[in-house]
Amino acid sequence: MKRGFFHSRRHRLLLCLGPGGVGKTTMAAALGLRSALEGAAVDVMTIDPAPRLLDTLHVDGAVSQPQDVDLQELSVSGAGRMRALKLDPKHTFDSVVNRYAPTRAMAEAILNNRIYRSISTALAGVGDYMAMEKLLELYDDPEAALIVLDTPPAREALDFLGAPERLLDLLNSRATSLLGGGLKLSDLAARAVLSAFDRVTGLHLLSDVHTFVRSFEGMYQGFAERAAGARSIVYGPECLVLVITTAEELRVEETREFVGSLERTGLSIDGLVVNRVAPPLPHKSGLKKINPPSLQKKMQRNWRDFAALKQRETAALRVLKEMLPAGATMLVAPDLGREPRSLADLAEIAGTLDTPHFRK
User: What is the pLDDT of residue 85?
Assistant: First the structure.
C-alpha cells in the first residue's frame, strides 16, 4: 500500500467527524487498518453506539478494553498491530474515580453511592467526558503510534468536543453546591423542600447527594487537569481532523453547517473524505452491441439515470471543494457496491485514498 496524504504529516490522533449515515465508522476502521498494515501500532475507538465497527473487526463489543484485531487473514508482511474498542462510560468513570480519590476508602464510598451509580450511566455528557478520559489513557501509552477516534454524528460530536468543560461546570455549579450543603439564607426554602421529600419517601436523597458531592472534594483539580489535557490533544498539532461525508445534496448541506460549527469552536479540518463516490460513467457507444433491442432500451434508460446521478455528484463535489479551508485536502472513496463486512473490504477502501482529489 502506497504512503500518501496520511503520512505527509506527523500525527498521533486521527479524529473522524461528520454527519450520520455517511460511512464514518467504516472509514475510521479503514484508515486505522491502513496504518496498521503499514507497520504502525494503532488503536481504533468508537463513541458511536452502533456496533458496526466492532462487527467488521470481529471483536467483542461487551469488552471495555482494547482488543487485538487479527490481521493474519490479509497476509501482509511487515504489518504492525491494531486494537479496537467500544467506549464503556461506566467502566471508564469508575477508573477515573479510582485514579483520583485520595484514599481507597473514599473511592469505595463514591463507587457505592447510589447518586454516583445513577450519574455514571445516565447523566447527559458523562459518556462524552469519559470518551475524552479514554482518549487520554490511550494517548499516554507510548506504544500507540496512532489513535483513530470515531465520533458520534455531527451534532453529538460538537457535544463531545465540549464535554470536559461542560462536566466541570456541572460539578462546580450552584445546583451541586446547593445540594452539597453550601446553602445561603435564600436557599433554605429549597433545602426544606428536599428534606420534606426525604421524610415522606424515606429515600434520604439529600443526605446521599450531600455525601456524594463532599466525597469529590480534592478531586476537582485532577478533573480540571485532564480536561485541559484532552483539549490540548484534540486542538493540538498532533491531531489530524477529517470530516467524512458523501456527495448527496442533503449531506453536502449538513457538512457545510458542520464545518462552520467546527471553525467556530476553533477546530480547523485538515481533510474532507467524500465516501461512496460512484464509478466513472461508461461510454454510451458500448450499449449499441447489446441484444435483444428490448434489453438495449432498458440499458440506455439506466445509462441516462446514471449520467444524471454523476452530473449531480460532480456538482456536489464542486461545492465541497469550495467549502474546504485553506490548506485542507479532499479525498474520495469509491462505492464498493456492497456493504463492507471484512478486513479485506476495509483494506480496499483505504487503498483508494492514496491520491488527493483536490488540495486547497
Answer: 87
Coil, strand or helix at 296:
helix
| Burial profile 88-110: b = 16 or more Cβ within 10 angstroms, e = fewer | bbeebbbbbbeebbeeeebbebb
Whole-number Å distance between alpha carbons of 76 and 72? 7
Peptide bond into 292 cis (omega under 30): yes
pLDDT of residue 321: 93
| Residue-range domain boundaries for the chain | 5-359
Query: Any idea which architecture 5-359 has in CATH?
Result: 3-Layer(aba) Sandwich (3.40)
pLDDT of 13? 94
Residue 216, phi then psi, degrees to nearest 5: -90, -5
228 band by pLDDT with thresholds 50, 70 and 90: confident
Cα(64)–Cα(244) distance, integer angstroms: 26
Backbone angles phi, psi at 286, to 5 degrees: -70, -20
How far apart CA 323 and CA 169 sit, in angstroms, is 34
Q: Name the 3-class secondary structure at 44.
A: strand
**Distance in Å from the first CA to the final CA of the chain:** 25
pTM: 0.80
Q: Pick the closest to residue 125 from 98, 150, 93 (CA basis).
A: 93
- Looking only at the bridges linking them, the beta strands covering 81-86 and 41-46 are parallel
Q: What is the mean pLDDT of residues 142-162?
A: 83
With b for 16 or more beta-carbon neighbours within 10 A and e for fewer, the 143-170 pattern comes to ebbbbbbbbbbbeebbebbbbbbbbbeb
Q: Strand, helix or coil at 314? A: helix
Please report the sign of the dihedral spanned by the C-alpha atoms of residue 158, residue 163, residue 169, residue 171.
positive
Say which residue the cell 471508564 belongs to. Answer: 92
